[in-house]
């Protein structure tokens, strides 16, 4: 199929949106909005206001589910309101993820340093079986050591404490507490998965998880979550690529028990939506001995989603419960109350 779309100036795009049924009460404000976020990005927020295709016209293969026409009553200020909400929500989530990242670095560094200040470079301080598994043509330990070397080389350019160590102790590895400060968040799961089971379990329990394997999987999902927020990508109605599943007895206490029941939300793909990711993050921060009030910050932001527009069936077109995997009455759950 030939691609036939051509470039249009923003005022022409606004005229097209009006022709498709999207009301634009303030042309100047709308033009400023498109100038700031771009027409293509705004489409991610306009999409939900478009009418659904009749069932016989839906094309699953091409992911075509909606018409070009907008539902009655849809206005561009609805789109602007949704984008502004989502932008702030992303910043709130990033704040919680950065808090978690710092705590995770400290937890891993402390647990390994007890064994040896350079435990991350010593197979006998790590899990020998995990280290010996292949990652391409190399062992995972060899791949890990290359990751360490790259982190140190980069860190030497940006961080005085790395440059100082290399100059003063040229033949000694960077200590674990320094290395974890220059590793990217995305590399921390690799180190966690090389840790001996008792050590990994100790770190997992600091964040409320009973089993290191499940916690390790959650770490990779938190990396995806952080990257989405850090890159300014949409959170509203996103389905993350990894499925986050919480099972019974995997976490301490009952704060995440509501995620175990099938059908805890009406949103499709519930294990890939924002709610289960944010709920798990809130739980981990609350489980840490140095607790956090991020759960209340997140709750406050979500409550600000208030777009009063009905779907054709009479329900609210946009809501946390319909679009982001939130359960009914989620605000009443203990997870979203101030920690006592």
Q: Could you write a compact summary of the structure shown?
A:
The protein is mainly alpha-helical. Helices cover 50% and strands 4% of the residues.
Task: Kindly describe this structure.
The protein has 340 residues and is mainly alpha-helical. It has 2 domains: 10-74, no CATH class; 83-336, no CATH class. Helices cover 50% and strands 4% of the residues. The chain has 14 helices and 4 strands. The strands form 2 sheets. Strands 1-2 form a two-stranded antiparallel ribbon. A hairpin with a 2-residue loop joins β3 (134-135) and β4. α4 runs parallel beside α12, α4 (76-113) packs antiparallel against α13 (294-302) and α9 packs antiparallel against α11 (212-230). It starts with 9 loop residues before the first helix and ends in a 17-residue tail after the last helix.
